[in-house]
Amino acid sequence: AFAIALGGSAILFSAAHHWGVYGEPFRASVFVYRALAGVAFGCIFWYRSFANAVYAHVLYDLYVLVLR
Description:
The chain has 68 residues and is mainly alpha-helical. It is 78% helix and 0% strand. The protein contains three helices and no strands. The chain has helices at residues 2-16, 28-47, 50-67. α1 (2-16) packs across α2 (28-47) and α2 packs antiparallel against α3 (50-67). The longest helix has 20 residues, at 28-47. The mean pLDDT is 95.
């Protein structure tokens, strides 16, 4: 059950970044990368806490912001 929930939530996490007016245009490589990030964040959530998963996401967003 854990693997199914983790995979499903990772796919939804990735898809959410492409939905809507402000979503990024779909590219398969970006979708897969974000799905893998969703797996990583999901594991952080499961084994640590929601707060740690949020902190990891924020740190990643700041890292991307600085590099752009």
